[in-house]
Amino acid sequence: MASLPLSHPLRSEAPYSQYFSTISEAVQSSSEGDRIVVHPGVYNETVALDKPVQLIGAGPEKVLLVNSSLTVVDVKPSAGDATIANMEIKFDAPEDNPSLRQYCIQVPGGASPNVHNCHFTNTSFCGACVYIHGSGARPRVTHCTIANANNVGVFVDDHAHGYFEHNNIHGNKLAGVWIKNYASPVFRENEVHHGKDVGFFVFQDGQGVLESNDIHSNRIAGIEIKNDANPIIYRCSIHHGSTGGVYVHDRGRGQFIENKIFANTYAGVWITSESNPTLRDNEIFGGLQGGVYFFGGGRGVLENNNIHSNTLAGVQIRTGSDPIIRNNEIHHGLHGGIYVHDSGRGLVEVTRFIRMRWLEFGSLLESACSEAEQDS
């Protein structure tokens, strides 16, 4: 391993080259702004990244950075906007301690590294692949694969931020992404899929923006929100979940705007236990059960949504739930438009029903529906 060998095409940019046997030695000997080129090979070590250097591998299929005892890349606040790119980074938990809580990469408060085109996996049952925590943590993670972890793919915690774009997050045993404790990252145009749990889990006051992500084929919900978490979900596709598309419970909130929620095994959206999200301008369709399901004291606002072609009711309200349903179009369902029963309540305003099999209202507080058309 060396920094810019003599034959390297970028050799002219550096005054000289130095060669090292480990990445850690190269980082320790480098100066701010240096570029360290990592040649193909397996590097069994940990790297404390404590200065703003560029750590560039020959490609994730050629460079493996691995360790079995400590976090593999431990970014320090002094690393600033360091770059880590083009390598595979793996924490391989020891067989005698598979629950060792360590990470592939850890980014603390004050650090804002750029992480590009890396592959991450973690065999520990307790450690995430990518762990970001603390106020001022703002990594930029792009075009990475975060996959097949025995725990969580990405964990953003404790007021951390961060920007994630064009990543492939899949096959993780727990959630693809955890967001909690006032963390507020941005996830844009990622694919989060085929997880063995949920896609995104936002909880304990987690926040953030999820925009234009493709979230599909997860074993539980595509997105789960609870415990006063309040993210913004905008223009995402949430589909082909093995259970539901979105699950909001235990005082969860959230704003869902212009999403496509479709082809999920259970309801497209579940809202329960004092949760109060807002769903506006979404298309919720093609569910193997219902469109939106309020139960167990669920609340929320459904406004300007297009809810159609679901197997069961477009909207079902029961067991003390009390939502506001305003100016939606609910149509072409194989069951009811809005089905209210078992002590359900709610307010329905200016909602259009087209070609439904049947409609049933239970104990709605007020019905101001218009333009209702119902096939017999």
UniProtKB/TrEMBL annotation:
Superkingdom of the organism of origin: Eukaryota
Alphabetic keyword roster: Repeat, Ubl conjugation pathway
Pathway(s) the chain acts in: Protein modification; protein ubiquitination
SUPFAM superfamilies named in the record: Pectin lyase-like (SSF51126)
GO biological processes: regulation of apoptotic process; ubiquitin-dependent protein catabolic process
Carbohydrate-binding/sugar hydrolysis domain: residues covered: 56-203, 219-340
Short name of one Pfam family: Beta_helix
Keyword Ribonucleoprotein: no
Keyword Zinc: no
SMART domains (UniProt xref): CASH, PbH1
PANTHER family named among the record's database cross-references: F-BOX ONLY PROTEIN (PTHR22990), F-BOX ONLY PROTEIN 11 (PTHR22990:SF20)
The name this protein goes by in its record: F-box only protein 11
